[in-house]
Design brief:
The protein has 571 residues and is of the alpha/beta class. The protein is 22% helix and 35% strand. The chain is built from twelve helices and 33 strands. The protein has a 21-stranded parallel β-sheet that branches. This is Serine/threonine-protein kinase 33.
Amino acid sequence: MSFLTTHRITNFLASGSFGLVFKTSNQNGVSLSATKFLFCETDNSRRLQLIQRESNVQLKHENVVELVQVSEEFFTPQVILELRSLLPNCKDRSWTLITKYLHQAYETGRVQVHILKMELCGPTLRVWLDYYTVNPIFYKAQADLNAVQVRIVSECAEGLRFLHTNDIIHRDFKPENVMFSLPEDRNKFIFPLKIGDFGLSRQIPNSTSTSQVEMTQHVGTDSYMAPEINLGRYSKAADIYSFGLVMWEVLQLINDFDRPEYFHRRVNENDNHLIEKNLPLPNAKYFIVRMTSKQIDYRMKDLDQFIEQRVRFAHNSEQLTTFLRDAVPREVIYLGETSYEGAFEIGKDNLTLKGMGEGTIMRPVSGESAEFQNPSENFLLSVRGSNCTVVGLKFETFQKNQGGIGVFGNANKISNISLTTRDGDAISVFGDDNVVKKLKIKNSRNGITILGRGNTADYNYMQNGDEGISLDGVSNVVTTFCWSNLKTGVSIRSGSSSHRILDTKEIDKLQGGGGGVGLRIDKDTANCCITNVKAEKISVDGSCHSFRNVKSEKNPEICGEGHIFMDFEGV
């Protein structure tokens, strides 16, 4: 039974060098597909070879367009006329192509056609790029754009690695040949992504990532074509070159106008300064440089190292719990603009947890009202690993004694976080050599409590609460801390020593009817250095503290011994 008797052709989708793609369905109007009609010329062996190659790529992977059915038929002039009636009314390339074969059908009575029925996809990656580079207002308004960019790159890499694992070189990897999934809404870009159009692909059995093979010269699209293709001897590394350029284009949102110059300068002039440093993917610049090297020996030979960074996207609380449990070093877990409920733990080293700012909210499970008895062990997020990064999240808890973040490991970085807790610590640092930076804390009992050694609190702000920053342990540093409406701004607790406080100030009056203290240094403390601090009231005890450029608006309370005062206004 012929394809045309079992299927309906509904509308035109796209055209290629020697074929047309139409949207098709079964006769009941369901089971939608994209069907490519490739017109054959028996005297053109090159064309027949390309058609055969595309027909042979019948692989099943989430990130590769699935070829559902392959058949071969002969179309009469009447059938070709019906296809032409579905084309746009402009006489473009597709119109010229089909008219050519219509004339051939009139001359010979029929034309041979290869039919490739594929899964129906949505818009191409090129459409997405145009949407966000031509209209910057769109991506500036999309808070989760970075996560989308990273997912695009990650899924392209997964699909391309799958092809290479099956000894297939795509040879024309570019945004036009990467499709989003079929959307319910035509204006949406839906994952997963799919790599398609295998007309130029080659299957090289038993090839390795480095084995170069004699193949056709100058195959693919010039902008994305690896230099060695012009020499006619290349390998899977040619696809990696193309992928590196696409990755750069997606992560940096390079527009059509800049793209030719950027690509030329990067490849031919080895200009790496064009690659932005803070792209939304770990080590992005390193990988782009390695992938797009003109020198094959320096270029990355496969995508394993890139993919093994493990970038994941947790869309709900259950996924986040699972990903944190199963994480491996250097993994990056992205969170979306939604709420994640529960208590989570980073128990592995070298992980990154990255949210989308205040739209990514961490909170207790809805309806829970437990009162935690030990506030030092109960947090929405516990960081027990070391060398981890947590960035771009909002924490909200109104549970009694529950804190926001507990940092138990060492050398972690916590930044760009908003926290509101009922009466637990917004963030407590128990480990050593951690950095907490750019935190906004509101309506919390205590802000930042630091108990370890060598930790740094930098560029933080707190409003409405009891105590802003509390220092215990040894050799911790506070820089650029501002606060308003607190009972105590910064305190150095008894038994601790050698802390440094720099560039902190009170920007509103303290609570407590004048009884509050902006800076309090308890007894049994020693060797702390206070520089560029301004507060309504300062209370000092302990021994051997030094003060430089410090202002207390009210008479300070000075106890202890061995202090050094240099430009202390109020003493």
